[in-house]
Write a structure and sequence with these properties.
Elements lengths: L2 E5 L5 E5 L4 H10 L6 E5 L5 H12 L3 E5 L2 E5 L7 E2 L1 H4 L9 H8 L1 E5 L12 H9 L3 E5 L2 E5 L7 E3 L5 H12 L4 E5 L5 H12 L3 E3 L5 E5 L7 E4 L4 H14 L2 E5 L7 H9 L3 E4 L3 E5 L9 E2 L11 H8 L5 E5 L8 H8 L3 E5 L3 E5 L8 E3 L3 H13 L3 E5 L2 H4 L5 H7 L3 E5 L1
Parallel strand pairs: 2-15, 3-14, 6-7, 10-11, 18-19, 22-23
Antiparallel strand pairs: 1-23, 1-24, 3-5, 4-5, 7-9, 8-9, 11-13, 12-13, 15-17, 16-17, 19-21, 20-21
Length: 417
């Protein structure tokens, strides 16, 4: 397996371009199932998860042509309604094909998904929502099966905001008969991006980005050209890395409106931030001030930035509390940071107390999930000595050419094959 080697202690300087958002691209690509024709996507990041969803669509019969961060999907060729375990086990986002398949074909069979080991993330709300739309659901031998002659619009209330649940049911409802109302819906920018794309295809969706989304069903959707929004988590990762190293980095091709929670917390650490229309300049200042965070659904502080922020807090002045309220088991990276000299104690499984130290020390560490990988890269950038990160296939799921981008900013980082 590949490893990433980092010799720490260098400040980051220069410019970096942000890639398309993985978490926006996956539901958008899944939405091509709804179209009996071609859907063209641009600004598609070159990531393992994108390859996984493409392979899944190809297994369903779709034609997928990729070049230069563009992907063309021809959904008219789909001739199969079963998403098999060997393809779905690679990532949890594979569940996003369930809603589109049953909406268009009246029948779907999807393996229960796999992915990062950061909590159960059950699909109960996906299934109860589809049942509310008239689908008959069964689970047998690890597969979810959904059947409906045609879905029927209904009011669906989520017990708590769920991003993939909102996306799955919004896609399903586009072809349902009548009107569907999603209440307590997730509000993330990726939800808005999906609704905007579906509307370009001919859907009638209002309220995306608010807790109530209304979908008036149509008989079919048509071909469209879709551009993937910038990745707000990659943006936040480079912002934290610039702050942690005391660097000066211009982050280009991002959307500052999507990361208000991250910007506010970084400002509170004493980091200087200049905001432009599609770029952000981050200047790290010492000492780094300790700041408490609590992960919350959007527009709160994102759970996908918790690990990176913890890495920053390990070298902050004072003590900070990090409260993970979204997923359980999402502090696995703390054990690896302890190996590098961090002082972290965890209570109740979801609260980490971090006492800043003067310096981290390089050590061999192992990535446990996608965002934990990013936190270890940041830790390696600020540690004294040579850090070797193993199991970096996790980071390849969500960051495009991460070692190349950091190298261009002056980091001593390389991939060891």
């Amino acid at each position: 397996m590949d490893k990433i080697q980092i010799i720490g202690g260098r400040q980051l300087h220069g410019e970096v371009n942000i890639s398309g958002a993985k978490n926006a691209a996956l539901p958008l690509i899944a939405s091509s199932i709804l179209v009996n024709g071609k859907t063209c996507f641009s600004n598609v990041p070159n990531l393992m998860d994108i390859t996984s969803i493409r392979q899944l669509l190809e297994d369903l019969g779709a034609s997928c042509k990729a070049s230069n961060n563009c992907l063309e999907v021809d959904g008219s060729l789909i001739n199969k309604i079963e998403a098999e375990y060997d393809l779905v086990r690679k990532m949890r986002a594979s569940i996003l094909v369930l809603g589109p398949l049953v909406a268009r074909f009246g029948h779907a069979k999807v393996s229960l998904p796999g992915g990062c080991a950061i909590g159960a993330r059950p699909v109960d709300m996906h299934l109860s929502g589809l049942e509310a739309l008239g689908a008959v659901i069964s689970i047998d031998h690890g597969y979810i099966e959904a059947k409906a002659n045609r879905l029927i619009g209904n009011e669906i209330y989520f017990d708590m905001p769920t991003v993939t649940g909102t996306e799955n049911l919004m896609m399903a409802a586009t072809l349902a008969k009548g009107t569907t109302e999603l209440r307590n819906a997730a509000r993330e920018p990726e939800i808005v991006a999906l609704a905007d794309a579906l509307n370009l295809m001919g859907a009638k969706i209002n309220g995306a980005g608010t807790p109530i989304i209304t979908i008036e069903g149509v008989k079919n959707l048509s071909s469209a050209d879709i551009s993937i929004i910038p990745d707000r988590i990659e943006t936040g990762t480079f912002m934290v890395a610039a702050a942690a190293t005391g660097g000066d980095v211009l982050i280009k091709g991002c959307n500052p409106d999507h990361i208000g929670g991250i910007i506010n917390k970084l400002k509170a650490t004493g980091t200087s931030i200049e905001i432009f229309s599609d770029s952000i300049r981050v200047i790290g200042n010492k000492p780094i001030k300790s700041v408490d965070i609590k992960t919350l659904p959007y527009p709160g502080f994102p759970t996908d930035m918790q690990a990176q922020f913890m890495a920053l807090m390990t070298v902050a002045d004072g003590r900070s509390m990090i409260h993970e309220s979204i997923f359980e088991n999402r502090f696995v990276h703390a054990n690896e940071l302890l190996r590098m000299g961090a002082k972290i104690s965890i209570s109740n499984g979801n609260i980490a107390m971090v006492k800043g130290v003067e310096n981290l020390q390089a050590a061999p560490v192992m990535a446990s999930d996608l965002r934990a990988s990013a936190s270890l890269v940041i830790a390696g950038l600020i540690a004294e000595g040579t850090t070797m990160i193993s199991r970096v296939y996790h980071i390849d799921r969500g960051y495009e050419n991460i070692e190349t981008k950091f190298s261009l900013l002056g980091a001593d980082i390389k991939r060891i094959k």
